[in-house]
Write a structure and sequence with these properties.
The protein has 41 helices and 25 strands. It is of the alpha/beta class.
């Protein structure tokens, strides 16, 4: 195997290394071996620290080390790959015995911890002067967000304080006086304060020079790359051809510009000359480009140069990127709003710290900030000083997931380390598996250390390539696919990582190890059926179904349940939706408040009592008394069924004991007692026992911080998932599967797009070179975003694009033997952008083409829509006799019902983007809705005609364009009401709300009159939509009605 040399080198404990270990390469085993080797040569176990990012990973590594030591107490294994670990562990046991370390009795001597845990050690070593007792770390997102919101509200309340009044008013005005946006800005920034708090201020105010220097670094770095490319491909002849150009900005380009900020305008001019506004090489030039007719020879020569350069994508991308570079010289208005935002954020941090002190809590970000501050204030330059041990060696697992803040901490810890002083750094990870951008991980840091080192240490780079997990067919298949998907050039800022080939450790002969199944638009039912078929065809294999988002499993979960196939759903099914959880929540509410009628009815209906609905109805009608009193009243019980009386009496006997305990014990203990009495442990399944433990822990956590209210409990339940018993079929997200392996991997939903994130009010980016940029979204009075905001938005989109590639790589490298890929095309029979399917489309193009051919529909002739069928003559309702009014009222009701039905059906076709359904399918849908044979043909014609008019409309392409931002039939909820939007999308930084209407023009009504009638009728409705969505989106919002009958898009706001 071709990487054995590198694996042996990694065990040289006299050197520092950074190791790139792709999926299946035995990274954890190598880390274990290095750790054991270091223990065997160290003066004490505490002199070796191993760090990773999650408690789960810490537990796994610790278990590996302990199991290795235990196995070393037995005979040497025959397998060669186990012998290295055995020999190393044996030496550690010998050292432990000689020095009386007692490692197998004192596991705490293994210094294996998370990076957050290390920060906690530092912070606890040097607590603040006013901290008398250790603080409790807030782990739950809901509790953390709640305290951020409180800090935001306290910040706003300071609007009357002279020091902050102007800044708060300025930021509010900038956000169109939207208080919710003001809160969201603060909450979002507090959650990222480790990125900006230590860099943004100087003497308590915004240091604008920090932002300028960051912009300069970014610009110069980009221009240096571009200059190298231009010098490589543009010769002297090209610049001579520009000498006679009639445009001064082009004629002055005499040669390759310098890579300086001062030359930025020249670079922009060069970009404008070479590329179109779409960023493509120009294929023609004219007088507008400074090449009039008399310069025909020069023009043709320049065009020829562009044609020759058309295949050089890196040069083109770098040229196009010049227009997207950030601002260096900020305008006065930009500086003012940035200063005001900085002042508001400073106050928000103060308010947050006050809340932390009052509650004696803090979050992980504060732990990291305190650790950094402690190292600065106490001038601790060596990790050994704060741990009171002579630490010689640090190992870090999953180094590709390091954030900039964590990187700075590591730099400070080893700042005094020197080459040759016996101290070593061992960093291991796989940049191709960096999928935690949402946790601020910076994969570019791995690339940076690989080239530049860290502090004074320049680790030697080692590349592993052997895959011990997957068969040769899977490995070679993945090599073929990802060598085409991953970028060819690495970019630390954008997170672009080149693909590194792997080599299988064992051979197989499966030619169909990777299989692809495309499906027609939105045929998720076919996709789920295929998943079921794959599972049934592989009855003995361990199978995992991996998805990008939990919602992508809905159809699959349903079909597996119908087929009675057991599955283990890892963090898939929300805990709140489990029936037993609901019963426990109702029991909690009933115990907290004996007068909670709904809770009492729920617990009486729950299995532990099981009261029938007719008995519950009897109890619910007694409005003047609480149900707990009613069920103890014999006279009331006589009104229940015999079965109900028996159930109630048993329940009351138990529950009275529970209520009597409340004053003697904590609520957690009372609830635990209640659950045990009502649902004894022997009656609970394994899953429900796990839910009980999980629920009681939530109650304990709430009670311990004196927030034992239903709202807080509900918040704590949010984001938690029901436990699942072990099964052969496993369902999980790709993120949850990282580090795991399975015989057969199924990846459905390839054509589904991820959920759209709410646009950021402030874009913030901390780069791997320690640069920091931030920019707020434009205000309502501004026409365009700042260059910095545009640049950061572009960087974020590029980072997301490259992480999508890596996420697919993680999913496909979980497989040992087989991979099954399933995805649906969009309504245009294409793969939607920003999907896995888009990445795979070029590789499986022949199967795409085959599917398109099979789903192509015959073109139907387009006809005009007739007037809507009237069921009665337009009589004057008020002048009818009473009997006629009744008949008319009924007929109007029928008319309106049919109109509503047809409108709903048309909406469904719009939602599904089905504009050419066959008449039989329309007939089937109408018959399902109860439409009789007499009227059905006219209704079919109406639907067909409306859809044809829509397709013929000039607005059709724009309205139904495939966008990643598009949402259909989406509901938004605020404090007052909820709204359902027919179609929603972002176009040129404007949010469009589209409401479809099937209204038709009257016989004597002009188009103008019809439009005015629709505006009068629906303006208020669309205004309410706009108000509701302004709480979710920080951008310009426009509303429009689309009336297909007259082919008009009526803009309201």
């Amino acid at each position: 195997m071709n990487d054995q040399t590198q694996r042996r080198q990694a065990l040289d404990v006299s050197q520092s290394f950074i190791v790139q270990a792709p999926a299946g390469s035995g990274k954890t085993e190598l880390l274990t071996q290095r750790y054991l080797k270091l223990l065997s040569v160290s003066a004490s176990p505490e002199s070796v620290i191993a760090m990773t990012f999650t408690k789960k990973a810490v537990s796994e590594l610790t278990t590996r080390v302990i199991e290795s030591l235990k196995l070393a107490q037995g005979n040497r294994p025959k397998e060669s790959y186990k012998q290295t670990t055995y020999d190393l562990a044996l030496k550690v046991l010998e050292k432990s015995k000689t020095l009386d370390w007692q490692l197998l009795n004192m596991y705490e001597r293994f210094k294996i911890l998370t990076i957050d845990g290390l920060s906690g050690l530092i912070a606890s070593r040097y607590p603040s002067k006013n901290q008398l007792v250790p603080k409790q770390i807030i782990a739950q997102n809901c509790v953390r967000n709640d305290i951020y919101l409180k800090a935001a509200k306290q910040t706003l309340l300071a609007i009357d304080e002279s020091e902050y009044q102007n800044s708060i008013e300025s930021v509010l005005l900038y956000l169109d006086n939207n208080v919710n946006k003001f809160y969201r800005l603060i909450i979002d920034m507090l959650a990222k304060r480790d990125q900006w708090l230590l860099k943004l201020y100087q003497h308590g105010v915004l240091n604008i020079e920090t932002l300028r220097l960051s912009s300069k670094k970014i610009i110069i770095q980009h221009l240096l790359l571009l200059k190298n490319e231009v010098e490589r491909y543009f010769n002297v002849t090209f610049f001579k051809l520009l000498k006679d150009n009639t445009k001064p900005e082009f004629a002055q380009i005499q040669g390759v510009p310098d890579a300086t900020v001062e030359s930025l305008e020249v670079w922009k001019n060069l970009c404008q000359l070479c590329l179109t506004t779409q960023g493509k090489w120009r294929t023609s030039l004219n007088k507008n480009n400074g090449f009039p007719v008399e310069l025909k020879t020069q023009k043709q020569a320049v065009i020829k140069i562009f044609q020759d350069l058309s295949s050089h994508q890196q040069l083109r991308k770098l040229l196009a990127g010049v227009e997207q570079l950030p601002d260096v010289n900020f305008s006065t208005n930009q500086i003012n709003i940035l200063q005001d935002i900085a002042q508001v954020l400073k106050l928000a941090v103060i308010q947050l710290n006050i809340l932390f002190d009052v509650n004696q809590t803090y979050d992980f970000i504060q732990v990291a900030l305190d650790a950094n501050q402690a190292l600065d204030e106490h001038q601790v330059g060596d990790v050994a000083l704060f741990l009171d041990n002579k630490v010689q060696h640090i190992l870090i697992d999953e180094f590709q997931d390091t954030s900039a803040t964590q990187f700075v901490l590591l730099e400070k810890l080893i700042i005094n380390w020197q080459v040759g002083d016996g101290k070593t750094l061992f960093l291991v990870g796989d940049p191709m598996q960096s999928i935690y951008l949402f946790r601020q991980s910076q994969v570019g840091l791995f690339l940076q250390v690989r080239v530049q080192g860290i502090a004074n240490i320049k680790p030697k780079f080692l590349q592993l390539s052997t895959n011990f997990r997957s068969s040769e067919s899977v490995v070679e298949g993945n090599n073929k696919i990802f060598s085409k998907i991953f970028p060819q050039q690495e970019d630390a800022f954008k997170g672009a990582i080149k693909y590194e080939h792997s080599q299988a450790n064992f051979v197989d002969e499966n030619e169909n190890a990777i299989r692809f199944y495309p499906f027609a638009y939105k045929r998720y039912d076919f996709e789920a059926q295929k998943v079921l078929e794959i599972i049934q065809n592989n009855p003995t294999k361990e199978i995992v179904i991996l998805v990008r988002s939990r919602s992508h499993l809905d159809d699959i979960v349903s079909i597996l349940k119908r087929a009675n196939i057991e599955f283990e759903a890892l963090k898939i099914l929300p805990l709140k939706e489990d029936l037993f959880t609901r019963d426990l929540l109702s029991l909690t509410r009933a115990l907290k408040h004996l007068g909670d009628k709904l809770a009492w009815l729920a617990i009486l209906r729950a299995p532990w009592c099981g009261l029938l609905l007719e008995d519950l109805l009897v109890l619910s009608q007694q409005d003047e008394r609480v149900i707990f009193d009613l069920i103890q009243d014999e006279q009331v019980l006589q009104g229940l069924s015999e079965n109900g009386q028996l159930r109630i009496r048993n329940f009351v006997h138990v529950f009275c004991d529970i209520v009597n305990q409340q004053s003697r014990f904590s609520f957690t203990k009372v609830l635990a007692f209640a659950i045990n009495q009502l649902a004894p442990q022997s009656s609970l399944s394994v899953k429900r026992s796990m839910i009980k433990i999980q629920f009681l822990q939530i109650i304990h956590d709430c009670e311990s911080v004196q927030q034992l209210d239903i709202e807080t409990i509900n918040q704590m339940l949010d984001g938690l998932y029901a436990p699942s018993v072990n099964a052969r079929i496993k369902l999980m997200t790709i993120h949850e599967a990282k580090g795991l392996e399975f015989e057969l991997v199924i990846i459905p939903g390839l054509g589904r797009m991820p959920q759209n994130n709410i646009p950021s009010i402030i874009h913030l980016q901390e780069f791997s070179n320690q640069s920091l940029l931030l920019a707020p979204i434009r205000s309502y009075t501004q026409l365009d975003d700042s260059h910095t905001y545009t640049y950061l938005k572009h960087i974020k989109s590029q980072q997301n694009k490259f992480e999508t590639m890596r996420l697919l790589y993680v999913a496909m490298t979980r497989a040992k033997l087989e991979i099954h890929l399933l995805g649906t095309l969009n309504q245009s029979n294409q793969a939607s952008s920003n999907t896995f399917l888009k990445l795979l489309a070029p590789i499986f193009q022949h199967q795409f083409d085959k599917l398109k051919l099979s789903t192509t529909e015959d073109n139907q002739p387009l006809v005009q829509a007739p007037e809507f069928v009237r069921y009665i003559k337009p009589l004057e309702y008020d002048n009818l006799p009473d009997e006629s009014k009744k008949k008319m009222d009924f007929q109007l009701s029928v008319d309106l019902q049919y109109k509503s039905l047809l409108g709903t059906l048309l909406h469904q076709y719009y939602e599904d983007s089905l504009f050419s359904p066959d008449k039989q399918s329309i007939r089937a849908r109408l018959m399902e809705c109860g439409v009789g044979n007499m009227d059905i043909d006219s209704h079919i014609n109406f639907i067909v005609n409306m859809l044809n008019l829509t397709k013929q409309d000039k607005h059709f392409s724009w309205l139904f364009k495939q966008r990643t931002s598009t949402q259909v039939e989406v509901e938004f909820i605020n404090d007052k009401h909820s709204v359902i939007i027919d179609r929603l999308f972002i176009d040129e930084d404007t949010l469009w709300i589209i409401d479809f209407k099937t209204a038709t023009k009257s016989n004597n009504e002009s188009i103008a009159q019809f439009i005015q009638r629709q505006k009068i009728k629906y303006t208020q409705q669309l205004l309410s939509y706009k108000v509701a969505l302004s709480e979710y989106y920080s951008m310009e919002i426009k509303c429009a009605l689309y009336c297909s009958s007259v082919q008009e898009l009526i803009e309201i706001y």
